[in-house]
Amino acid sequence: MTHPKTTGHIALVGAGPGARDLLTLRALERIRAADVLLYDRLVDPAIMELAPSGTERIYVGKDVGACKWPQGRIDRLIVAKAKLGLRVVRLKSGDPSIFGRACEEIAAARAAGIEVEIVPGITAASAAAASIGRPLTERGETDTFVITTGTCKPGDAAPDRARLAHPGTSMAFYMAVERVAQVQADLMDAGAPAACPVEIVTRASTRHERHVATTLGALSKTIAAEGIANPAILFIRYPKSLARALASTGAVIAA
Amino acid sequence: MTHPKTTGHIALVGAGPGARDLLTLRALERIRAADVLLYDRLVDPAIMELAPSGTERIYVGKDVGACKWPQGRIDRLIVAKAKLGLRVVRLKSGDPSIFGRACEEIAAARAAGIEVEIVPGITAASAAAASIGRPLTERGETDTFVITTGTCKPGDAAPDRARLAHPGTSMAFYMAVERVAQVQADLMDAGAPAACPVEIVTRASTRHERHVATTLGALSKTIAAEGIANPAILFIRYPKSLARALASTGAVIAA
Questions:
Q1: Is B221 helix (H, G, I), strand (E, B) or coil?
Q2: CATH of domain B9-119
Q3: B211 forms bridges with which residues in the sheet?
Q4: What angle separates helix B71-83 from helix B102-111, to the nearest 10 degrees?
Q5: Residues contacting A253, CB < 8 A, separation 6+
Q6: Beta-carbon separation of A140 and B121 below 8 A
Q7: What is the pTM of this model?
């Protein structure tokens, strides 16, 4: 697909989890062809360097002591730039389709009659799994993989986590470090065993990546003791074999 | 990371959903440096062309009239090749961490003392969402995204789908076309409304991609009428606003 300069175009481009070489070839092509690049603090500076020197760069993230751009302001800006006939690239960390607030920008572009596309990216959970060498699903152990978040739209109820506490489920919590006590309590109250293995991966795929292994029962304490902060993935597994092992232990105790 | 020829190495490389430009830069690098490339029918021929002409190519997928390679045979082959000091790339469609059977190959490599890595890839659900311009999560509408499958290890119980029938959930079913009647019945029996929107995307990101929109209540009939076959993603959403709208209708009827 080519985008002649005379027609404005908006691409919501997945910048991936951090490492520059986890960009897709399509993302690289869009960045190299960009007239305007919008980015936030989660996008690695190494990725910004891929754009031509003449590309206008606009930081729309949170500055120290300043407020984050409201979504509506970003929506208006990308539309205004595209209306000038420019190729606008809105970089989003990870995959724009997963907790990327892409809907608002797509709606704004469509309302203005501007062509808009999503370029998928590697989401943080995939990068975390690759880094620790542990897949997100394991045949015979986990058949359902859930991506959910610790933080919701203000005023919304938190996601119902009780239904996730089920053998055969693996879960990646995004942006959940500050709500970790609630996540742990919700899952355990619903029957997830304290022994469920948990891998915490912060800043997956970057040179600041860190990996801590713990269990569901020790999760809050581990987060506090290790001083873990967002962006982090909490990768919590409830393998079928753990459920079977606990059931057989329970049977012995009951007998 | 460099892999000198004298040390064998195994990379489980995500080939992405199909389109060559949805490979990551790291995947491209591994393919270009491969001495041996193992692939199956889901990997696009255009991706195979990226390997040097001297690379040994081994097809481990299902041939017409022949059986698929058993997993153990693949495990033994990648280890044997790496022990010769070769750089082995096992290409897997999508992301090796999601329904990629990566565990077995990682375990075989580790047991043999061979360095093994996962190179993440774009999973089919992300590509499908990008193609249809509809994110997998929508702020205020869906806060939990579930990837699950229609087919399990033989002898295993099917995933418990009842708990997925919950407002705020979006679901991507992989390889579920043949079980679609059961998926539809399980979700509706658990309370998911017939009006839940469904997008069916076959062969996402390839030139054979096809997109059909339907509803949960009409899903089986649509699959049959349209002659849809795997590989397909069934992207089923239960938005919070749909739950609210149905609740208010119910209230009016009850009053």
A1: helix
A2: 3.40.1010.10
A3: B201
A4: 40
A5: none
A6: no
A7: 0.92
Does the CB of B133 have a partner CB in chain A at under 8 Å?
Answer: yes
* Residues of chain B positioned with their CB less than 8 A from the CB of A160: 166, 168
Please tell me if residue B145 touches chain A, with a CB cutoff of 8 Å: yes
Q: Catalytic residue positions of A?
A: 40, 62
Q: What is the pLDDT of residues A109-151, one digit of tens each?
A: 999 999 999 999 999 999 999 999 999 999 899 999 999 988 7
Q: Which of B5, B62, B68, B83 is catalytic?
A: B62
B122 to A122: CB separation less than 8 angstroms, yes or no: yes
DSSP bridge pairs for A9: A87, A115
Nearest CB among B119, B140, B145 relative to A98 is that of B145
pLDDT at B160 over 60: yes
What single DSSP character describes residue A149?
E
Extents of the domains making up chain A:
9-119, 124-245
Q: How far is B142 from chain A (nearest CA, A)?
A: 9
The pLDDT-based confidence of A159 (bands split at 50, 70, 90) is confident
Q: Would you state the pLDDT for residue A74?
A: 93
On whether any CB of chain A is under 8 Å from the CB of B46, the answer is no
User: Closest chain B residue to A241 measured between Cα atoms?
Assistant: B156
Phi-psi region of B136 (alpha: psi -120 to 50; beta: other; left: phi over 0): alpha
Ranking A191-195, B57-61, B190-194, B250-254 by mean pLDDT, the lowest is B250-254
Helices and strands: H and E segment counts in chain B: 8, 10
A20, A28, A130 member nearest B97 (Cβ):
A130
Does position B250 have pLDDT exceeding 90, yes or no? no
* Residue A236 sits at the chain B interface (C-beta within 8 Å): no
For residue range B101-143, what is the model confidence (pLDDT) as tens digits? 899 999 999 999 999 999 999 999 999 999 999 999 998 999 9
Q: Do A156 and B140 touch (CB under 8 A)?
A: yes
**Mean pLDDT over residues A52-62, rounded?**
90
Domain B124-245 of CATH type 2.60.40.1090: no
**Chain CA centroid to CA B38, Å:** 18
Note the residue count of chain A: 255
B159 against A30, higher pLDDT: A30
Residue A142 in contact with partner chain B when CB distance is under 8 A: no
